[in-house]
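Step 1: inspect the first sequence and its tokens.
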Amino acid sequence: MAELDQEFPSPHTHGAASDELHAGELADDEGDDSEGGDELYEHHRIQANRKQELLRLDKFLLLRIPKTSRTRIQNAILAGAVQVNSQAVKSNYRVKPLDIITVTLPEPPREFKVMPEPMDLDIRYEDPELLLVNKPAGLVVHPAFGHWQGTLVNGLAHHLANLPTGRNGEVRPGLVHRIDKDTSGLLVIGKSEYAMTYLSNQFFHHTIERTYLALVWGVPAEAQGTISTNIGRSIKDRKVQAVFPFEGEYGRTAVTHYKVLQAFGQVALVQCNLETGRTHQIRVHMKHIGHPLFGDATYGGDRVVYGQRTGAYKAFAEKALALLPRQALHAKSLGFEHPISREFMQFEAELPADFADVLKMWEEHAAAPAPS
């Protein structure tokens, strides 16, 4: 059996690469589209041992880099972020003795430290173990490249004296899940390491009850259904997520249950319940069945998708889009078992004003008599 390789630190190397190789996926990943500059920074330099057996590059890195996955490594290789002996190679390259593998990325490695910042938090519940907050749209949840300050975690660090670091040493201050920057709604925060672990296990075993409200373009043919696919970073555009065959080798299993609550002709209000929590899951799944979220620029919902592209209707639809210049998605409810009392707790948050106003516009539009 080959001996373990040594990892040689370079002047730029700062430890594990789980959050460097991908966007730091949690239950509901932020998936921000922050872009770095032209300069590349070396995050890892690994030299194969003299007795290294021939092994695929992706498998080699999977064994050597902690807290990552083969899919994430393959994405990095496809993007040219991984080189062997200063040459770009494919995932099926066979690592040989004394090969030098480097991982370079646009953002510099950074020692992570959360800076507390005063922030008005809409706290819906708090006790010694956990806190429930209603996040407004536009607020980034977790500090990351391009968003080191002004995030929800910075506000939580100010509100809480001792914010737990995360599971197994991972830097996820208080978080057991998160939602996209431009999605509003409920988040549960663990105030102790024990609470984080207990809540995280519920997410892992899919016992958390999560309900989202989404305004989508068009009306799904089936009033309710289940969307089961794999979701992973797009091969064509790594800034977005894409659908892949269910239980295939690429991406991770994603299951969304949906139900049409109201239909307004060209749009519909849909309830979505997550069985899994993948990056942009609802947004990707609804686009996959032909009904992108209203206002979602990333997945094609920021234009008139259904209905006439000219005349009064087009003007009305564009006015509605201008009123809600983001994806119409709201994390309405959360249900979970309390870490200490074991009581099942259920919370709900009302629609934010911009979402509610656009919904009212479509209701009135649908109820108006057709022009004679």
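Step 2: inspect the second sequence and its tokens, then contrast the two.
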Amino acid sequence: MSDRNDRPRIRRDERDLVGDLLSIADSGPEIPADGADRIKAAIKTQWRRDLRARARRRWTIAAAGVAAAAILAVAVTTLDRSDRVVTRPTGPVAYFDVVDGRVEVVSADGRSIVSSELDLPRAIAAGSWIRTAGESRAGLRLGEGQSLRLDVDTSIRLASTTRVDLERGAAYLDSRDANGSPVDIATPFGIASDVGTQFEVRLTEGLLSVAVREGVVAINRDDLDLEVGSGVAVTVSADGRIDRRRIDPSSGYWTWVQEIAPPFDIEGRSVADFLGWVSRETGSLIRYSEPGLERFARDTVLHGTAAGLSPIQAPDVVLASCGLIAEKNGEFLVVRRDRVPSR
């Protein structure tokens, strides 16, 4: 062990030399007036990229755990969106998937169309306002594949394929299976940034609430950079106060989202495909009650239609056609054979 007295010392003449060098050194280029803002923007961009990378790692780990437990999981390819080039929209930025009740669309030039005049799928141009009435909801497909759903009494502006301005109410975004650039939901209290996830943004009584069902969401504003993970709901007040609470992905909180889910076309699809959709929309994990049922689900092809059925209702109807039933058991939806007693 060396003694402190053995450490090298800076002699007086060396300190003088350092001072002389500093006195003649060039001060360097002047920092531009917007330099601080540019540095902050660069840091924030890198921060969002890091969040996306962590979200991808979490999905990989979660998928491995599900496979080990013999639970059906939906196969997902997670793409790196950090290097995508965002371009200005040259065509429609969204299409209506589902309309339930009275929905109004006001285009950028002021023309208004109500839901009774909408033919689905209806193309929506950039700059359009969409408003749902007090008992109405709407489901849209953004131009790059994301599912956007609007709760009752909601008003949004579709600024572009990657930005939604929320004026009031609640918007839910599901972008995990999309191939496009991340989407920002902007509010007067901050911007919720999509990191490949399912989440809801809600404005109520001057508060911003962000509930994350899956993945990660970044909330940005001048005085706040916040990461919200899966199963967490955060409320942010105008003065920056933050409240957190847990929220289960399969809880009744998400019922409104399922009621306005885009329809699943079962024709020619397997039972496993259908159950993957049910799992995605309800937040329930699929479990098979006996060996061999998972393979049966993969090999069995469905025909017909499930139009008009929500993800909660559809299993009872669709599975019955192939001799199966599904029962909710906590976070799981247990699939078993329908053993109808003989008479």
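Step 3: confirm your contrast with the notes below.
The helical segments are 12-24, 35-68, 255-259, 271-282, 293-299, 314-320. The two ends are 90 Å apart (CA to CA).
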